[in-house]
Each structure stands twice: as C-alpha cells, then as structure tokens.
Amino acid sequence: MSNRATQILPHHRYVHSLGAPLACVQGTITKVFASPDNHHGANHQHLIVKIDKVLKFEGGTQNLVGTKVFIAVRFGDNEGLAEEIPGLQAGQPIEAQGEYIPEASAYPTDDNSNPVLPVLHFTHHPVGYVSYAGHYYS
C-alpha cells in the first residue's frame, strides 16, 4: 500500500508534506506518551487516538472510523506549535487534521511499534491542527 493520495492536493506543495491524503478526524485519546526530555528545537508529542468520526478525508478511500491512529504533534520550533499541548489525557475527545499515513507505509518508532499504527502527520500549520479541551492549536 502506498501513502500517496489519490490526487494532487493543495497541501502537497509544502516541504513537510509526504504527498498523503488529508484527514480531519474526531476521536478519543486512548494513550498519551511521556513528553520528550529534550526541549531544544523540534520535538513531537505522541498520542494514540481511536477515530470516532471522519470530518474530511481528501485523497483517501479507506474507512477510518474505528481505526486507532498514532498522532505526532510537532512543537518547539517555528514550523510546529510553539509549545506542547497541555493536559492531554486518555479518555478525552480530540479533533485533529493532518496527513494520513497508513500502517503499511508508517515506519516503527519507540512509541509506534508492535503493531505499527497508521500515523496522522503534519498536524500543525499550514496544513493541520489539533483542537483539544476548547483550544485550537496550529
């Protein structure tokens, strides 16, 4: 399986794009991983979300409802969020938009392995965002 979208989409022009479909989903956080110790330059907050509803899936054809997805939220530099999203907790609702990388194209990391889950990547400006606890992060 490829992570390529079924068509060329506007967000593909950005340097961090992987040419993947754009997914906007609502779901429930099932796991929040410990924050990285290194807060110098770009870091990522990692969490797992069970998708409850798909608001948008441009360039993709899979049914994502019920899927668990690994979300990486970049922070700590001028390309991602300025700081971490505070207070992320399992069991809480969340909305996120980013590029959807299916498990067949996702590579394993310390937090995303056994099994490797699909990834929601580029969850920051200018393509994605996260909405959590009444706050919008982009």
Word description of this protein:
It is built from no helices and seven strands. The chain has 138 residues and is mainly β. The N and C termini lie far apart (29 Å). The chain has a single domain (10-137), classed as OB fold (Dihydrolipoamide Acetyltransferase, E2P), CATH 2.40.50. It has a five-stranded mixed beta barrel with strand order 1-2-3-5-4. The chain has strands at 22-32, 43-58, 68-75, 93-101, 119-121, 129-132, 135-137.
Shape: globular
User: β content, as a range?
Assistant: 35-45%
**What is the count of structural domains?**
1
Number of E strands: 7
Radius of gyration: 14 Å
Low-confidence stretches: none
> Span between N and C termini?
29 Å
Task: Report the oligomer.
Answer: single chain
Query: How many helical elements?
Result: 0
Q: Average pLDDT value?
A: 88
Assigned CATH architecture: Beta Barrel
Order of helices and strands: EEEEEEE
Give the CATH topology.
OB fold (Dihydrolipoamide Acetyltransferase, E2P)
Lateral arrangement of strands in the main beta sheet? 1-2-3-5-4
How would you sum up the major sheet?
Answer: 5 strands, mixed, barrel
Brief descriptors of the model:
globular; 5-stranded mixed β-barrel; 138 residues; OB fold (Dihydrolipoamide Acetyltransferase, E2P); mainly beta
